[in-house]
Amino acid sequence: MKQTKAARSLKMNLFSMLAAVLIFTAFSCASKASFQTSSVVPAARGDVKVKKDGNNNYQIKIKISGLAEAKRLEPAKQVYVVWLESEGHNINNLGRINSSSSFLSKKLKADFETVSSIKPIKIFITAEDEAGVQYPGTHLILTTNNF
To answer: 30-34 and 79-86: which strand pairing?
Structure first.
């Protein structure tokens, strides 16, 4: 009889853990989108992962490889800027991806992470002369389709 109680207890514990994992997975789904091939920097590849957190904010994580330094573009630019487009087609500057060694390695890889209270429908990257611009310029480097 002791084994039966132990077996039941084990089954209940496993069932509880499985239910917790399923519930956690259902509420922590992340959207992932790949960047389209760039005509300006064709070797650049990457993806964006957007995940809603417990505070109703959106965690945005970007990974890119093959991204040449902005100074090597024609015409040369100073920085790459990440932009968020929302459902109302408002566009927000999320920040810059530095082309220094701390962000881009010799293998031309870059990571970018931020949190936004605005739900993105599209993420894109432009090359700019300065990071604090209010509107994206014409040098579109990478963009996603709509999430």
So the answer is: unpaired
